[in-house]
Amino acid sequence: MLAKETTVLQGEPLPWTPIIAHPELYHREIMDAAMADAFGVRVSSILWERIGVGGQVLPHYHDVVEVIHITVGKVKLLCNGEWISYKAGDTFHVPAQTIHSVANDDSQPTEQISIFLPADANVPSNSFFQTYLVDATVYGHPTATEAKPNV
């Protein structure tokens, strides 16, 4: 059965768990595969990661696509065999089976959101989602609106 209610995972109580194989790398798991299954979506994991000063996600690859969005600080990315500097707001799309690494390139800890997505040639084409507005006054919001697609 798919989840039918909005759930909230508050960030503060989530522990920063060290990933021992990588120096100064910590993560908070936002969504694991079991949660994704409960929501009926295809996601291997979504991590909120912190890389301490001098820390690094060591060079590696995996069998999934990874999307990395830098939220705090400056990092160096091992990208196509070359180290390149990036900053908060930049996003990396790393194909499955591609060697990559992210290193802190700042004087403070950096943070990023890493989304791990299954890679499969047989996945149906994606499409942008539909949004429908509802009467907000029913939910205590002061404005009323009509339902409209594609907002």
From TrEMBL:
Transmembrane segment boundaries: none
Gene3D superfamilies: Jelly Rolls
All residue ranges annotated as the Cupin type-2 domain in the record: 49-116
Database matches in InterPro entries: Cupin_2, Flavonoid_dioxygenase-like, RmlC-like_jellyroll, RmlC_Cupin_sf
Coiled coil, from the record: none
Protein name per its UniProtKB record: Cupin domain-containing protein
